[in-house]
Every structure is written in C-alpha cells, then in structure tokens.
Amino acid sequence: MRNILKYFLKLFLFWMLLFLIQRIFFLLFQYDQLPGIGIINILLSGWYALPMDVSMTSYILLFPVLQFFILLVKDLKLIKGIILSYFIIIIILSAFINIVDLGLFEAWGSKLNNKALSYLAYPEEAIAATAATPIILLTGIFIIESIIAIWIFTKIRINFNPAMLTLFQKFILAILLLVLVFIGMRGGVQEIPINKSWSYYSKHPVLNLSAVNSTWNAIEIFIKPAEYETNPYSYLNEDMAEIIFKELHNVEQDTTVNIFNISKPNIILVLLESWSGDIIEAIGGEKDVTPEFARLSKQGLLFTNFYSTGFRTEQGLAALLSGFPSQPKTTIIRKFGKFDKLPSIVNVLDSNGYSSAYYYGGDLEFANTITYLKTAGFDKIIGDEDFEFIKSTEWGAYDEELFNFYLKDTKNVHEPFFHILMTSTSHEPFDAPVDGGFTGNTLPDRYRNTISYTDICLGNFLRAAKKQSWYPNTVFIITPDHGHFLPKNRNHYDAERHHIPFLIYGDALKEKFKGKIIDKFASHSDFASTVLSQLNISYDHFRWSKNLFNNYQEDFAFYSFDEGFGWLEKKQSLIFDHQFNDIISIRNDSLSDTVNNQILNKGKAYLQVLMEEYIGVSR
C-alpha cells in the first residue's frame, strides 16, 4: 500500500515540477517586462500558481486513479500500457500548449483564448499575426521539453502485486485516492471551486498570466462556450451608431461646477447591498425603512434620478471603477483578457497621490471580484478572511462589524485616500436575524428589515467617523451596488428595478450644496468622470463616463438586462426588448413615434457601440 501511495506522490511531484518549468520558460520569454517589478513579486507568481497547478495535476491523475482500481483486482499489462500511453499524450499536449502560450503572449499579450482559437479557421492570417514569434526556438523547446519529460516519466515505476493487499486495504486505498484527487481538482474543501482568479495577484498582467496554469486554461477554453465573435446588437449602420454615441458625450464647453471645499479630499465610496429606490423615501420610495439615509440626504447632495447599470455587484463595480456599463448576457469582470484592459479610477488616483483600499465582509473570490480589484490597482483589499468578526450571514460579516473594523483600521491612514466599503447583510435571502424594526416573515418584510438594519449601521458609522482625524477632509459617496425587485416585485427589466440613490455627503462638501437635490439622469458609469473632474484630473480614458457637474453635458441613464436595455432621459424613458425587437414600456405616451424612434436610436447606438467595444477589447 505504501508503494502505491509513493507512486502517486511521484506522479504528483512530476507534474508540479513540469508546470513550474513551463512557468519559468514563460517568465524568461517575457524578461523585458520584468525589470522594475521586483524579485519578490516575480517569485510570488510561483506561490499563487500552486493551487491551479495542484488542480490541474489532480485532473490529470483522475484517469489513472480510475484505471488503477482494475489493477487492485488483477495485475494487467494492458492497463499499465494504457496509463503509460495516456501520460505520454498528456505530456506532449501540455508541452504544446506551453509553447502556444509563449508564442501568443509574444504576439498578442495574452494566453490561449477563444479569439486565438477562432484564428485556426484562417491559418494564413494566424501565421501573419504571429510572424514575429520565434517559431524555430519554440519548436525546439517543445521537442526538448517533451523528450525530457517523457524520459523522466518512464523512470517512475511501480512494482505491485494485488494479492499483497487485503480487501479492506484495497477499499481504503481506493477511497483515499479518489477523495484526494477530487479535493485537489476543486482546489480544496472551500465552498467555491478554484478558478483562474486564484492566480491573479499583481497589477502586472505578465505575472498574473504566468501564474495561470496553461493546461488548465486551455481545457477551460475548450469546455466553456466561446465569447461573442459578432455583435448580436447591430441595430444601426456602424458609422451612424458611433456618431450618435459621440453626440451623447460631446459638450459645448468642458467645464465643471466645483462642489468640494478642498482640492484633494479623502473619498469613501459606501456601496449598499441591494438597496432599491422603492424603499428610499428621499427619492420617492417607502417611508420609515431608511430614516438615517433620509436624514443624511437633507445634509448632503442627492441625485434622485440615478440608476444602476446592471443588477449584480460585479456589474456595478466595473461601471463605477472603470466607467464601463453592464452588458446583456455577459459580465466583463468575469472575462479574463477583457477586464484587465479597462481603465481604472483607482490607478488614476494612485498616480495622483491617493492611497486606496477595498473593505468587504464577504468572500472576495465570488464572481472574480478579487481579481478585478487587484487589476484595478487597490493597495489594500480586505475580505472575510482578513479580520475577525462574531456574526455573519452566508454572504459575510454583519455590516456593523465591517464598519467598526474599518474605523479601527483607519486610525492612522495615509491621506488623501480612496476607500470602498461594501456591505453585505442586506443580500438575499434576507434571513439575517437582525433588528431593523420589521417583524413580518414575508420576503418583502425580511428585505425591509435587513435594509433598515444596514441603514441604522450606516448612521452609526457616520456618527462614529466624525471622531476620526481624517473626517473633516473627507467626502462620502453613498450609493447601492444595484437595486432589487423587492419589495414591489418589479420585473427584471423595469426602470424602477434599477432606480437607486446617489448621495454626496461630508465636511468636504461645500455648504451651499448641502441639502440640495439634482434630478439629472445618471448611472454608475458616470462616477469616474464626475469624481476626477472635481479633482481637476483628466478623465479622457473613461469615454463611457459623463461629468455630472458639467452643465453642458446631456443627461441620460442606460441599463441592460438579459434581453434588452432601458434608456432614460427627461423627455422620455423607454425599455427595449431585443428578442421581441420592440419597445415594451414607455413613460411618456404623448410623444410622436418619430421622436420616440429618435430616442430609441440613442439606446440602440449606445448598446451597439458598447458591445463592439466589449468584443474588441481583447483583440
């Protein structure tokens, strides 16, 4: 039994060593990108690669483990021959994938992806696109790597007689091998299985890609459906769509109404989980659910026609930090090779003297969040594994504990800073046993109760924050990550489903703006340009983002859902269903069809150009 375990341990170490060598080759090929990064950061790629290497090794070992069960009954040369042939094939495939990645990164700055695979149908273009790749050198590496790896593998032998083991030992061995392999395949016993985000740790794409196991990545690409290759939302002539889009963002004069009383205030973005406008009295929702927010609204600057661009947290983050609106049927934050090409307000602020941090009481691995945050450039990222808390839901620490930890953690913070606090207690299924004042057991009442609880926590947090030394220099921007269909069971496409508050509050806000209301139509994607303009920092890279304090800027809001989009402006608001190919809801029915079609074309052009950019961002 010990010999068998030693045999599989040797196989495990063999593959781990092979993947390490492949990673070294990858880094050596990109040596011109490494100066200035630092040896520690480079070495960390090996550490962050371990989980995915273990996962891929476990997948490779699954087949021989299953075949080995036959050998536990009878020592068959045929089975041993099948296992040997299997490993030789996998070695050759892995070596080939390795040199493909070396060539692709050299030519396109990415590893194997669906876009690269699509070029196989056009071999001449593919060869032309990789003309600068050292084919001879890569071929030599492939041959040498394959020969040496196969030679080493053939030295890993096992002498085994099934008659030497009792039936009980065979049973224990079979169960043990299967359990270890399946745990390794999913990356451990944690709730969410391993994904590529585990390997992303650096602001430098070359290090993140070096940590991604090439074989694992290739298998995922073949298993998962391909990304869009053509735009399914091509409503208008391409030139016309681009003209309409540019007109939406063109301004007669690049000017800004300054609302801050200091040039570089600290900025704290408080993201409230799932807060819908339907429970915010300050923007026309129910009374008594969020009294603290109502109080804050009277002391801050409130936008009453603000809309979430999507309906998930990851969509909100991409819109807020990168100014990139949500897309139907896909989310850019989950797409490797796309989200890391987006601009980031965090990086811009960093280059202008700001420190940055993200605080969340939940699992940062979910929905690829931590990978996006790292790529965005945050100096510090706090999740549920980074601080101690007493009470939690399935989604993370109670909001009061998150706020309390933040206040303790920022006593000696470097200023100016940009921080995000992301709450979680009001996340569905709204079953946290908190006291928000609503005792009903219906889903809408449970929703109201958790929202009201977070509202209480928010008020307490801001009162406690006044004791911090940084408070006088700070502006708080308070908005939800997205809305919710509760408590009124809105349809997923309804504008009210996306209607949320956007509040600017704090001592750094000029007195004359406190208690004021702005009814411009806006969305998450306008955050970056609006903030940067107040700091007198260029926001040219955020072409989807509007400066809400430029009075010459056309105001509108866009949101998407799986089969269409909503377009909102002062004159009209309408909802278009892509499959139905028509408007399914309209706010103002007094306008002519001609005017409505002109407004509809704005939304169509916006979505069309958005998806063209989404598709092309990784080309």
Structure description:
- It contains 18 helices and 14 strands.
- It has 619 residues and is α/β, with parallel strands linked by helices.
- It folds into 2 domains: 222 residues, no CATH class; 308 residues, Alkaline Phosphatase, subunit A (3-Layer(aba) Sandwich).
- The model has no long low-confidence stretch (mean pLDDT 90).
Specify the biggest β-sheet. Answer: 8 strands, mixed
Overall mean confidence score, pLDDT: 90
Low-confidence spans = none
Helix/strand-derived category reads alpha/beta
What is the radius of gyration computed over CA atoms, rounded to a whole number of angstroms?
28 Å
Distance between the termini: 52 Å
Quaternary state reads single chain
Q: Going across the major beta sheet, what is the strand order?
A: 4-3-7-1-8-9-2-10
* Beta-strand residue fraction: 5-15%
Note the total helix count: 18
Highest CATH level, the class of the largest domain: Alpha Beta
Shape descriptor reads: globular
* Relevant CATH superfamily of the largest domain: Alkaline Phosphatase, subunit A
DSSP strand count: 14
* Estimated helix fraction: 40-55%
Architecture per CATH nomenclature, i.e. the level-2 architecture of the largest domain:
3-Layer(aba) Sandwich
Annotated CATH topology of the largest domain: Alkaline Phosphatase, subunit A
Domain unit count? 2
